[in-house]
Structure formats: structure tokens, C-alpha cells
Write a structure and sequence with these properties.
Elements: H1 4-13, H2 21-26, E1 31-36, E2 46-53, E3 61-62, E4 67-68, H3 71-83, E5 88-97, E6 99-101, H4 102-119, E7 123-132, H5 134-139, E8 144-147, E9 152-154, E10 159-160, H6 166-171, H7 196-219, H8 226-232, E11 237-239, H9 240-245, E12 251-252, H10 255-266, E13 273-278, E14 318-321
Parallel strand pairs: 2-5, 2-13, 5-7, 7-8, 7-9, 8-12
Antiparallel strand pairs: 1-13, 3-4, 6-14, 9-11, 10-14
């Protein structure tokens, strides 16, 4: 087989150009970017900032040129990269998320817990803008949670969204027919309503997922405990200061305070190097810069946000999400 370089040269000479679309769709590789240079010449203590930003999903997005992985895959990739670097002494989870899909949020929570066990380094969450619903669920995996004084925290609860277009279809004279093996097989169909029995079936699942959320909050070190967590789990939101008073977060502070907390917990006695992992490195990056995975990097949620599509079928999902109607 001819080497790729020779083959490409021959194609150019023949007037044919082949564009390797598959390689283009893979997107840029994950790379480390230094945000703050620390002390040390041959060896440096590092603190890695890993972002969880925007709506949390478990599905991939593929555009015409750029392929962007889902939130779960992106966070996992960054945790793996941090775990392989022996100079990384701790992690700051910088969170600005209203939550998202139940399973995606739970998986990220699980991966952070497993990372702490294997890497044996401290993980501190810094809620910047919002750590609501699934965003807060993810934060609960950290050893300690800090929230900006202007952040939104809480919204502990579960949503299940679907549509009922039966009335509209009747008005325009459209009928639908489902061939099904049992009467509840299409209980989430947008083309009909639901009986009380079917609502009860769905509610049992919602309550199971709700109890899991409450258990995660109650199990957090320094958290409110089971009874208090249940009282707070009615979907309401809190300011950073309120959340601290209610033990949903440990401290009101900033990303720099979270870095200082990791430094103290890791026993770092010199200035650490602060790094992040990005698909596309950005000049002038600092501790508030988002990671990017595509040409749209730089906007809110770049690198980790994939919008929840609101079409009839993909909208049928269980959500740990605050303000699901937001774009």
C-alpha cells in the first residue's frame, strides 16, 4: 500500500483532490493550556480547571464540518487527562449549568467520584453563574462547594416533558393510529393524552429519580442531611448566600477561592500552575475562560453545551433541569 503522503501527491498530479472528511469530523485534539504559570523549573504542582457549562446532555452533535462530543464525554476526557498527569494535585470544577438530562448528570457525578478514588486528589466545585438542578447534582460529587455571591443554586427536582397535540390534530382533521403490543406502549406519545393510570406510572419513575437526587444532596459532606434536604427539594432556587446558610454549599466565594481551597487541601506549598484542557487553545485565556471544541468557542457553553432539541420526540426525557424552556 502506498504511503498516504505519496498517494496524496499522486492525486494532486492527476488533478484529483480527495478531502478526508472523516478526519475533519473528528475535530481538534484535547490539549493542556496554561492559564497561570507557577513556581518550579523541573517539576510543577498543577491545579486543573474543568468546566461544566450549559445544558448537560448525553448525546453527540455533528455539524457539517465540526463534530462535538456530548457533555459526559467531554468531562470524562478532561478527567482522564488530569488523572494521567502526576503533576496535577487537584481539580476545580467550574460549574455554570442549569442541569440537563438525568442520566447524563448522574454519569458525570459518578465519574467525578471515581476520579477522586483513583487519582486521590481534592476536587472543589465553584458555581459561577448557576449550579441549578443537574448542575448542582454534579457539584455534589466534589469535596467542597463554593458559590459566587450572585450565583443561582438549587432547583432540586425532576421534570418529564412531552406534548399533547391531540386537540390541534383534531381541529385540522388529522388522525393518528398506533399499532402497539400493549396499551401503555405509547404512553408518552404527543398525539394523545394520558389516563390517570398512565400518569401514575410516569410519576412513579419521576419520584424514584427525585429520591435519588435528594439522597445525593443529603450524602454530601457537610450537607443538610436527609430531612432538611427533602424540605429544600421542592424545585426552588437560592442565592449563593442562601445556599450557604442552608448548607447546600460550603462557602460563598470565587474561582480564585476554590483554587486556594484545592491548594490547601493538596498541601501545595508553592505557587501552583493553573491549567485547563481545551480543544482549541485561546490566546489571553485565564481562569474564567471556557474550553472550546469548535469554531463557536468563546460563547456561553462552548465546548460542553449541546442544546436540548425541543422536537416532538427528543423532548420526551427525564430532566434534572431548571428553566427547561430556556435556549
Amino acid at each position: 500500500m502506498l504511503p498516504k503522503s505519496l498517494l496524496f501527491s499522486l492525486l494532486l498530479l492527476s488533478g484529483c483532490v480527495v478531502i478526508p472528511i472523516g478526519d475533519l469530523l473528528k475535530g481538534p485534539a484535547l490539549e493542556e493550556q496554561v492559564l497561570v504559570e507557577g513556581d518550579g523549573f523541573f517539576s510543577k504542582d498543577k491545579i486543573a480547571i474543568i468546566e461544566v457549562d450549559g445544558v448537560i446532555t448525553g448525546g453527540d452533535f455533528t455539524g457539517l464540518i465540526v463534530s462535538r462530543e456530548n457533555t459526559v464525554a467531554e468531562v470524562k476526557a478532561r478527567l482522564v487527562k488530569a488523572s494521567k498527569d502526576t503533576q496535577v494535585r487537584g481539580v476545580v470544577l467550574r460549574i455554570s449549568s442549569p442541569g440537563g438530562e438525568v442520566t447524563a448528570c448522574d454519569t458525570i457525578h459518578h465519574e467525578i467520584v471515581e476520579f477522586k478514588k483513583s487519582a486521590k486528589v481534592p476536587v472543589v466545585a465553584a458555581i459561577v453563574d448557576e449550579g441549578a438542578s443537574g448542575g448542582y447534582y454534579v457539584a455534589c460529587a466534589a469535596d467542597r462547594i463554593l458559590a459566587h455571591p450572585t450565583s443561582v443554586v438549587g432547583s432540586i427536582g425532576v421534570l418529564l416533558q412531552t406534548f399533547n397535540l391531540a386537540g390541534l390534530l383534531e381541529k385540522i382533521g388529522v388522525e393518528t393510529e398506533a399499532i402497539k403490543s400493549a396499551d401503555k406502549k405509547d404512553l408518552l406519545s404527543p398525539f394523545r393524552g394520558r389516563s390517570e393510570e398512565e400518569i401514575a406510572v410516569l410519576n412513579r419513575v419521576v419520584q424514584d429519580l427525585y429520591r435519588r437526587f435528594v439522597e445525593v444532596v443529603a450524602a454530601r459532606p457537610g450537607g443538610p442531611g436527609p430531612q432538611e434536604a427533602l424540605k429544600l427539594a421542592d424545585g426552588r432556587i437560592f442565592s449563593g448566600k442562601e445556599a450557604q446558610n442552608l448548607k447546600l454549599v460550603d462557602q460563598v466565594g470565587y474561582v480564585s477561592d476554590a483554587i486556594a481551597e484545592v491548594k490547601e487541601r493538596a498541601g501545595i506549598d508553592r505557587k501552583p500552575t493553573i491549567v485547563r484542557y481545551a480543544r482549541i487553545a485561546r490566546s489571553g485565556a485565564n481562569i474564567y475562560t471556557l474550553s472550546g471544541t469548535g469554531p463557536e468557542a468563546g460563547g456561553r457553553g462552548a465546548g460542553l453545551q449541546v442544546s436540548l432539541r425541543s422536537d416532538l420526540f427528543s423532548a420526551r426525557r427525564f430532566l434534572y433541569l431548571w428553566e427547561p424552556s430556556a435556549p
